[in-house]
Design brief:
- Keywords: Flavoprotein, FMN, Oxidoreductase.
- Belongs to the FMN-dependent alpha-hydroxy acid dehydrogenase family.
- This is Alpha-hydroxy acid oxidase.
- The structure is a single chain.
- The chain is built from 14 helices and twelve strands.
- The protein is α/β, with parallel strands linked by helices.
- It has one domain: Aldolase class I (TIM Barrel), CATH 3.20.20.
- α1 packs antiparallel against α14, α4 packs parallel to α5 and α4 runs parallel beside α14.
- The chain is globular, with a radius of gyration of 19 Å.
- The mean pLDDT is 95.
Length: 363
């Protein structure tokens, strides 16, 4: 692709992807305040470089919940990768595998878990809590058999946010693309297109269990040996409850600005969540990262890994597995470069002392 930064890949992807699909990928909920805030808040932090440190080699590898990773940059869960590339999630898995990066695979993947596993690379499975618990249990069993390393349960989506772009477009999943790991009857509503409504939202209203509480986590725990990660934690209160309920890790996330509009930006929530949990419990982060420097800020604020969403689909749309690999490598290389110039050559060196609050010029 030849792009030197993610902006070039984004521009190339936008020229290739149909408008309604682009809006589905890029859009947020409501007035998209949180979507914008996820990006803007990085400007509130500046880096504090140290000097005269041996930075001849920067160490970016780590083991997370038993999964060995070559980079702290991973892929956030996103549905239906075949919307932008015929090979879909198998190409994404190949690109992630070449980068040694974690791929959190959506339960609404458009390729089978088994095919994704064959493509290689570190992988965890993402879940929404369906009303049909038998379908959920069967999916968990398949994931464990296919070598997925953990379960990532989204907890901030009892309903889908009001995504006005999708409603204006009457967006629905195209008929030739399916969430192939679930029974077609469970997914039928997602294919229904009507102006002023969203097939994705209609499907969520029909299938997501809005009665889910902390007490239900025990049911899932009893059905798997895999570590359990909760995605969508934004407060210290919920972080402490996650610890009390035996969760193995949390992801600080506001769903990429796609759920509650006006919710706190993920980066603003990160420090209080990190402070609320034991040091040994991993806190992952997603929310607007578009460079290795921004990833360094999140890591310095306490994240153990940074998950990237939309840019991965840009790369997939432009170059398939090669494009995914390029996106991940661009961010990793920028992170490596930033760590060297910061004088902090190990992930453990990226601590709160590496960043300082820096009010936006417009404040």
């Amino acid at each position: 692709m030849g792009a030197l930064d993610l902006a070039g890949i984004e521009s190339a992807a936008r020229a290739r992807v149909p408008r309604d699909i682009w809006d589905f990928i890029e859009g947020g909920s409501g007035a998209e305040r949180t979507l914008a805030a996820n990006r803007k808040i990085f400007e509130r932090f500046a880096l504090r470089p140290r000097v005269l440190v041996d930075v001849s080699t920067c160490e970016l590898g780590q083991t997370l919940l038993g999964t060995r990773l070559d980079t702290p940059i991973g892929i956030a869960p996103m549905a239906y990768h075949r919307l932008v590339d015929e090979e879909g999630e198998t190409a994404t898995a190949q690109g992630a595998g070449r980068a040694g990066a974690l791929f959190v695979t959506s339960m609404f993947a458009s390729r089978t878990l088994e095919d994704i596993a064959k493509a290689g690379g570190p992988r965890w499975l993402h879940l929404y809590w369906l009303r049909d618990r038998a379908a959920l249990a069967a999916l968990v069993e398949r994931a464990e058999a296919a070598g997925f390393g953990a379960l990532v349960l989204t907890v901030d989506a009892p309903r889908i946010g009001r995504r006005l772009r999708d409603q204006r477009n009457g967006f629905a999943v195209p008929p030739h693309i399916h969430a192939v790991n679930l029974d077609a009857d469970l997914m039928a509503t997602s294919h229904r297109s009507e102006k002023g409504s969203s097939g994705i939202a209609e499907h969520a209203r029909e299938q997501f269990d809005t009665t889910l509480t902390w007490a239900d986590l025990g049911w899932l725990r009893a059905r798997t040996r895999l570590p359990l990660v909760l995605k969508g934690i934004l407060t210290a209160e919920d972080a402490r409850l996650a610890v009390e309920h035996g969760v193995d890790a949390v992801v600080v996330s506001n769903h990429g600005g796609r759920q509650l509009d006006g919710a706190i930006p993920s980066l603003a929530a990160l420090p209080e969540v990190v402070e609320a949990v034991p040091a040994e419990l991993p806190v992952l982060f997603d929310g607007g990262v578009r460079s290795g420097t921004e990833a360094a800020i999140a890591l310095a604020l306490g994240a153990r890994a940074v998950l990237v969403g939309r840019p991965v689909l840009w790369g997939l749309a432009v170059g398939g597995a090669d494009g995914v690999h390029q996106v991940l490598d661009l961010i990793r290389d920028e992170l490596d470069h930033t760590m060297a110039l910061l004088g902090r050559p190990r992930l453990a060196d990226l601590d709160r002392g590496a960043v300082t609050d820096w009010p936006c010029p417009t404040d």
